[in-house]
Amino acid sequence: FESWEGKVKLGGANGGQKTGQVGFSGPLGEKFAIRGAVSYLDRDGFYTNDITGEDVDRFKDKTIFLRGLW
User: What is the pLDDT of residues 51-64, one digit of tens each?
Assistant: First the structure.
């Protein structure tokens, strides 16, 4: 419960994948602290449907969480 800290992570990969993560934690007084994070993932996919021309294994995800510690 002494100080604030944070982390940022960005990335990319095959299949048009883009990722991002941000996390933080720190005190809110002497007896309470919080931790939170946001995560993002977007992937075009590795395969294309030959009939429709659309990406087969596309994936998108957004996650947010906030936690408290007493």
Answer: 998 888 889 999 99
CA atoms of 42 and 35, how far apart (whole Å): 24
For residue 41, the cross-strand partners are 19, 61
Q: Within 10 Å of residue 1's Cβ, how many Cβ atoms? A: 12
Cβ–Cβ < 8 Å for 32, 68: yes
Residue 5: predicted pLDDT = 97
User: In angstroms, rounded to a whole number, what is the distance separating the alpha carbons of residues 39 and 12?
Assistant: 14
- pTM, whole model, 2 decimals? 0.76
**Token representation of residue 30:** 């002497």
Predicted confidence band of residue 2 (pLDDT cuts 50, 70, 90): confident
Bridge partner residues of 48 (DSSP): 55
